[in-house]
Every structure is written in C-alpha cells, then in structure tokens.
C-alpha cells in the first residue's frame, strides 16, 4: 500500500465517523406530524392487508404509555388472532391456537409531542378487508394537524391534511 492509498483510507474512515451519527439521527427521528400520520396510515394498511392475506381478524389500538424516560407517548398496538380455519399459525407465522391472541411486544411509538384524538380507541379489520367501524383520527402537533380516515364498508384508508 502506498502512502497516498493509506492517506485516502484514513480520510474515508474519518469522514464516515463524522457522518455516521448524523445519518443515524436522520433515520431515527420523525420531525413532523405528517411523518407520524404516515406511520399511522402504514400501520393501518399493514393491519388490513394482514387480515386479508392471512384470513384473520386484525385489531389496531392506540393508547398512551409511559416510556423508559418517564414520558407519556402515543403508541400503536396490533393484535392478529388466527381464524378458525387457519393453519395453526398467527398472522406473522408463529405457532398459535385458533382464537388465541397476543398484542405486540414492542408497539409502534409516535413522537412524544404528537396528540391523537379519534372517535374510537381501536378498529378491527376482517378477512374481507372491511373495517369494524368508520374511523376519524386527528393527529396533531403544535399548530399542524392531519386527519386519518378509515371507511368501514370499503376498508379505504387515507389522510387529509388541514
């Protein structure tokens, strides 16, 4: 290895050490209410698609929990109960008896400053892709808010920014 190559390797390693923390921070933090509302929409769509593909009922709930730092934050929690005609596994492949159910071990946490108000505390998606109820959820942070809507009869999930 020549001196030029060695210096080039040192420069690349130095640049990567400086850049790594900022890149990690970029992916780990959500900065806007739109990002949190996108996460909610993706979670609801995942629940609906899981219900259809695995022929089971999937319930999604949202609740405030205290995190490790003692802050309360909103989390999204899902439960997928295997159907009576399932192959003995739950929606994600783990062995389960028909009718048994457990909530997620690590629920999906939203930003601590996000406030969620909804006309229900949970919603269930059926194997046909329809929802148990119409849902209107307002996701807000500071002065910005986004409304997430689920239509029961069609199972459509979308958001409306205000």
Automatic annotation (TrEMBL):
<dbReference type="GO" id="GO:0015627">
    <property type="term" value="C:type II protein secretion system complex"/>
</dbReference>
<keyword id="KW-0997">Cell inner membrane</keyword>
<dbReference type="InterPro" id="IPR022346">
    <property type="entry name" value="T2SS_GspH"/>
</dbReference>
<keyword id="KW-1003">Cell membrane</keyword>
<protein>
    <recommendedName>
        <fullName>General secretion pathway GspH domain-containing protein</fullName>
    </recommendedName>
</protein>
<keyword id="KW-0488">Methylation</keyword>
<keyword id="KW-1133">Transmembrane helix</keyword>
<keyword id="KW-0812">Transmembrane</keyword>
<dbReference type="GO" id="GO:0005886">
    <property type="term" value="C:plasma membrane"/>
</dbReference>
<dbReference type="GO" id="GO:0015628">
    <property type="term" value="P:protein secretion by the type II secretion system"/>
</dbReference>
<keyword id="KW-0472">Membrane</keyword>
<dbReference type="Pfam" id="PF12019">
    <property type="entry name" value="GspH"/>
</dbReference>
<feature type="domain" description="General secretion pathway GspH">
    <location>
        <begin position="40"/>
        <end position="153"/>
    </location>
</feature>
<feature type="transmembrane region" description="Helical">
    <location>
        <begin position="6"/>
        <end position="27"/>
    </location>
</feature>
